[in-house]
Design goal:
The protein has 193 residues and is mostly helical. Helix content is 61%, strand content 4%.
Length: 193
């Protein structure tokens, strides 16, 4: 039992980096958002939204949300606007994920990696919902945050669109967030021009 506890502590020490790794989003106080803060609010969004999408296993959805950015503890976050080669971010993040889960028992590590792979493939309802909510939470943060001048709000009007049209509730939620994004873009353009 002590070895198992030591492995969990080692894993948590590595995962703590997510509290320090920043994203492209800014908080309403003008601070850089951490990956951990994003994952936390994604889980809150999943908590209040999951019941509107049929046939979602909430426990599995939350597990996916918790691990979806775990590999970023090593390589950091690469904003969507900066990603270039298709699949490069995913391959690097999976390699980093394997490093983060290395202290865990084989079974615990395999569970986390399988959940991450499920998210990346977006093959299950839970993974599709997690992908969609991940994009929506990011957009909400961009709309809410005190971003630097020149922030590209209009990018978010295309961001993640391929993940948010599979369900009527998710699509309606996306439309609501897009209205906020358009308003924020117009306000930013007025201020700049």
């Amino acid at each position: 039992m002590e070895n198992e506890i030591d492995s969990i502590v080692g894993f948590l020490r590595g995962a703590e980096r997510l509290k320090c790794v920043t994203r492209s989003g800014w908080t309403s106080d003008g601070e850089r958002e951490s990956v951990a803060a994003h994952s936390w609010r994604l889980c809150l969004l999943a908590l209040v939204a999951h019941r509107h999408v049929p046939n979602v296993d909430f426990a599995r959805l939350i597990k996916i949300c918790l691990v979806h950015d775990l590999g970023e503890a090593i390589g950091g976050d690469i904003p969507a606007i900066s990603q270039t080669a298709a699949g490069a971010k995913s391959a690097a993040e999976r390699r980093d994920l394997l490093e983060v889960v290395a202290p865990l028992s084989r079974e615990a590590a395999a569970e986390i990696v399988a959940l991450w792979d499920e998210y990346e493939a977006a093959a299950t309802t839970e993974a599709k919902v997690a992908k969609a909510l991940d994009k929506l939470e990011t957009m909400i943060q961009h709309n809410q945050g005190r971003n630097p001048p020149g922030f590209d709000y209009r990018f978010n009007l295309r961001y993640g669109a391929e993940y948010t049209g599979f369900d009527p509730f998710i699509a309606a939620f996306r439309a609501r967030v897009d209205r906020d994004t358009s308003a924020r873009a117009i306000a930013a353009e007025r201020t700049a021009g």
